[in-house]
Amino acid sequence: MQNNSQNNNLINIFLWLKNRSRWHDPLAIPAAIGIFLALTKTNFTTIETGIFAVLLLLVMWWRVDGRLPVALALIGLVITAITNTYANHYLSPLAETIAERIAVWVFFLLVIGVTRFIFELKTPPGSTSDV
């Protein structure tokens, strides 16, 4: 009898995951923060990778249109070019470091956008679920 109730609970959990709300899921943000804290250490690169993983999961979870991260990446490319020009003109090592960090985030956003586009292509036209 208990095994049957455990199976029902498991089915209810899977149904909840399948029918989750697009924007109003109360567990999305705490889960993302938990993953972020689990991934981060003291290294700055590891923190950036953790933030990237959280953003990727949130974009996939909330089913954000793939054009949004790509548009943000294009804006970041313009900012990178301006910052890099400033760094070369004034010989500023700080501006060069900032330009490198922005370029890394542009790459992260492009990966997130392309991943979202791939999942959008795999989803049938009338369906509301991913994968």
Features:
mainly alpha; 5 helices; 77% helix
Which stretches are poorly predicted, pLDDT < 50 over at least 5 residues?
A: none
The proportion of residues in beta strands is under 5%
Helix and strand element order: HHHHH
Work out the count of structural domains: 1
Radius of gyration, in angstroms, nearest whole number: 20 Å
Helix and strand composition category: mainly alpha
> In which range does the helix fraction lie?
over 70%
Terminal residue distance: 33 Å
Main beta sheet strand tally, sense and closure: none
Calculate the mean pLDDT score and round it: 75
- By DSSP (H or I, 4+ residues per run), the number of helices equals 5
Number of strands: 0
Shape: flat
Summary, kept brief:
The protein contains five helices and no strands. By secondary structure, the chain is an all-alpha fold. It has one domain.
Please provide a written account of the structure:
The chain has 131 residues and is mainly α. The protein has one domain. It is 77% helix and 0% strand. Helix 3 packs parallel to helix 5. The model has no long low-confidence stretch (mean pLDDT 75).
Which helices and strands appear, and what pairs or packs with what?
Layout: H1 2-18, H2 28-39, H3 44-61, H4 67-90, H5 93-122
Helix pairs in contact: 2-3, 3-5, 4-5
